[in-house]
Amino acid sequence: MNPRVAASVALWQDARGGVRTRLHASAGTGIRPPDAFEIAFTDNPSLKPERSRSVDVGVSQTLTNRVTVDATWFYNRYEDLIVATGSFTDVSRFMTDNIANAKASGLSCQCRRATHGVTARASYTFMPTEVLAVDRSSDAPPPFDVGDPLIRRPRHQGALDLLWVSGPVSAFAEARARGRCSTSSRTSGRSAGCSPRRASSSLTLAPAGTCDPGSRSTGAR
C-alpha cells in the first residue's frame, strides 16, 4: 500500500472570480520493483524493490489569460534505491545495485504561454542529490562515500516544448538539455583517490507532426 495525498488552495482571485494564485502540495510513498533489464542483464537477482517518500509544495501564478508560471520545491527520500553502474556498451561490465539511503531535493520551475495556435512551455529543474549513511552507521555502502551525488542524476535539467495547431494539422517540437552528472561510482580501492566519471552536458531535439483531415489521419515522427 502506497498512500498519497494532494491538496490545492486558491490564494487570490481576480474580479471575475478566476483563480490567479494557487498553492498546491502533495506527499506520499512509493515502491518500484526491479524491471526486467535490471534483473536479467546485470546478473544481480538479489535486487530489492526501491522505496521512496516524497513531499512537494508549490505556487502557480496566472499572469495573463495566456501566461502561467509555477514553482515547486520537492524532497524525495529513497531506501534501497536502484542504481546502474558500469558500462552500457559492455553488458558484462554493467550491473545494478541498491543504495541503502539517498535523497534528492530541489526546485522545479515552469512557464506556459498559449497564443495564436501556438503553445510553448519552458521548464527548469535544479536537483542536488546525495548518498546518505546506512541506518545506524556513519558510512555509506561501498563503493560510495556519504555525500556522493547519485549516478546519472544531473543537477541541472531544462526543456522547451512547442505545439502548433491549425485546423487538422499540428506540429510538435521539444528540446531537452541535461547538465553534467556522474556516470559511475568509485572503483574498488578508494585509497587511490578515484573520482566518479562525469558525462558531459547533452541536448536532445525531437520534432513531430500530424494531419487529421476528417476521418483520415497520417502521422510522421
Explain what the structure shows:
The chain has a domain at 4-156. 10% of the residues are buried. The protein has one helix at 36-40; strands at 4-13, 19-32, 50-62, 67-85, 95-115, 118-126, 129-131, 156-166, 169-178, 181-182, 198-199, 202-211, 218-220. The radius of gyration is 22 Å and the shape is globular. The protein has 1 helix and 13 strands. It is mostly beta strands and 221 residues long. Strands 1, 2, 3, 4, 5, 6, 7, 8, 9, 12 and 13 form an 11-stranded antiparallel beta sheet that branches. It has a two-stranded antiparallel ribbon with strand order 10-11. The two termini are 39 Å apart. A hairpin with a 4-residue loop joins β3 and β4.
Which residue ranges are poorly predicted, with pLDDT under 50 across at least 5 consecutive positions?
88-92, 186-196, 215-221
Calculate Rg over CA atoms. Answer: 22 Å
N-C termini distance: 39 Å
Mean of residue pLDDT? 81
| Order of helical and strand elements | EEHEEEEEEEEEEE
Main sheet properties: 11 strands, antiparallel
Based on secondary structure, the structural category is: mainly beta
How many beta-strand segments? Answer: 13
The fraction of residues assigned to DSSP E strands is: over 45%
Query: Which range best describes the helical content: under 10%, 10-25%, 25-40%, 40-55%, 55-70% or over 70%?
Result: under 10%
- By DSSP (H or I, 4+ residues per run), the number of helices equals 1
